[in-house]
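Morning F.,

Quick status update on the modeling queue. The single chain you submitted on Monday has been processed. Sequence for confirmation:
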Amino acid sequence: MAERPETVTEKSTAAYIRGLAAQHHVTYVQTQSDLLAQHMTRLADDAVQPDEIECMLFALHRAGHLDRRQLVHLQVKYLREAKP
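C-alpha cells below.
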C-alpha cells in the first residue's frame, strides 16, 4: 500500500520550527555578521529581510540543532508554503 502524502500548510511548518526552537530553548539574537549581511544586501539594492521563522531557523543552526542541509530544507519548505 502506498503511503499517503503528507499535507503541509504554512502553519504546520512554522509551528514545527517554533516548537523545535521552544524544545531547545533557542531564541534569535542578531549578530554583527547579520547586521553586515543586511547592509551588504541593502547596498546591492537586493535587501532581504528574514522573518521571525527564518530567524529561528538561523538560531537553531547556530546552536547546533540543525545542520546546513536541514536548515535549507526547512527554509525552502516554509517559503514555498508561505507563497501567496
